[in-house]
Each structure stands twice: as C-alpha cells, then as structure tokens.
Predict the structure.
Amino acid sequence: MNKEFLHLLMEKTGFPEEAKAELLQNADALTAAGQEEALDGAVEFFYDNDFSISLSSPLIEEVAAKAGLSPYTVWLLFLVEAAIPVREAFAADGIREEIFWDTFTDLRYKVLECKEVQGVWGNFVAFWYPIFYSRDIVKLGRLEYENYTYSEDSPYEKNGYTVKKGDKIKSIHIPSSGEPFDEAARLDSYKRAYEFFKGELNGGPLVCVCHSWLLYPPYGKILPPKSNIVSFQQDFDIVGQETSEEFDDAWRLFGADYKKPLTELPERTSMQRAFKQYLLEGGKAGEGKGILIFDGEKIVNR
C-alpha cells in the first residue's frame, strides 16, 4: 500500500483535514494488522478480473475484519491504491495530470457523502467505480463524461442530426462536487468535452445522453423557474422518463435523515423543502432521460 500516494491524492483532491488525518491513521492500522499485502493483492485481483466489485468484495470484507476497520473505509483505501495505474496511463497518453486529479476528485465527493450518510470516512458506493479504472470516464469542468454506446432501436433525429443504435457517444454524470452548476459552468464543461474528444468526433458534434433524477420532468415543476436544475433540464431534449414508488435518490437530498418518515425529513434548504412538500402531496419519484448535441459552441437539438 502506497501511503505516499494516499496522502498526495487527498491533498490534490481536497479531502477535509479531519478525513486526511483519520484515513492516514486507518492506513497505519491496516499495516499494523498485517493487511497491507492483502490490500495490494485485492487491487491486483481487481485488475485481473475486469474491475469486478462483486468479486473483489469478499477480499475487502476480509481485510476490514482483520484490521478492525469499517468496510467503507477499506473500500476507500482500496480505490485510492487502485488509482495509481490510472494516473500512469493518463500520463502515458499525454493527458494533463490536472484531468486525472479532477476525475479522481470524485473520491472526495463520495467520502463526504459516506461521512454524512454512514457516519464514517470511506466509500459506500464502490459499485460506481469500475469505469474509473477502465478509463471510461473523465471529468471536464463541472461534469463527468462516460464512454457510452447508443442502444435504442429507433434512431434519434432532431434539427438535421441523427443518432442511431451502435453510435459511440457520451453519458453525462453530475457529481455532487458543490461547484457552480449554472448555465455558464455547464457550457464551459460542454466546450471542454468537445475539445477533449475532438479527435474521435471526426468533425461531427459531441452527442451526450443523461439518465438522471435531475432530468425527471415533474421535478422541474416544483422548483423555481431560475433553478439550476430547471435550467439543466432545458439543456436536453427529454426523450423518456420512468416513475418509481421509492425515492432511491433521497439520500442525495436529505443525507443521513433520508430514512425518516416524510413528515420528519429536514427542511434546511429550499430544495429539501420543495421535495418534501412534493412527496407529502403524493408526488412520485423518478428519472428522466435526455439527449444533448453540442457543436462546440452551442446546443443544437433544443
């Protein structure tokens, strides 16, 4: 286990001081328990088995038990250690190191969420991370872009542009980074992505899909018209939506309180108040799916 890299990653990605101190102590505890080699072996196993979280999970659970640490903490230490080859691959491909650190700042977002929801510095969503190690996702400005293949049987056509099944496009993700999410920040990200992927676009536009709770049309009706979420929805041509009986994204809004009865959900922010009222009135949760086509300067399919 490379503790020097752990310290470097936490510095570069802005981990809170409390998290840095505790995680370094956890790393020392893992070493003292004789589990450093086991963690390194788990990383090697992860790479040898197509970045499978489910197959790696028993190894992480065993290390955590023997070291007396939370599995969430060990997952975080594991994910940091596994990032070393990715940094080397970015460098070998001539990608600016800043982009590597920006991409893996996702670990900071999740360590904060883990502390809020689970009460421990760690990572409780390891299932999300294989695409980071296969290098199928990159953060450019405010947004993350994942390599994606358009899978709908029917072509998408709008304003003279066509997207058909099998086309290689990008899937947009919105990390909980706390960065500005206004139109200017999003436009900056789209422009960065267009330039970053320009070599594979063959002169065409950047085509992106996004499947997210933030694109669920009913949510746009309960938020102020000038809300950044409403504005984000307007970046896309919404082509589908799904309704759910359970609000699986409630933890993103309400943190550790998300399991409380609806009447006891917090109202610390205007967004919490709006969603609480919506749910109390019987509103259904859901996700929306949208398509965005960007020509380097503007969105061309709105």
Remarks:
- The chain has two domains: 3-133, 137-245+284-294.
- The chain is about 50% helix and 15% strand.
- The radius of gyration is 21 Å.
- The chain has a mean pLDDT of 96.
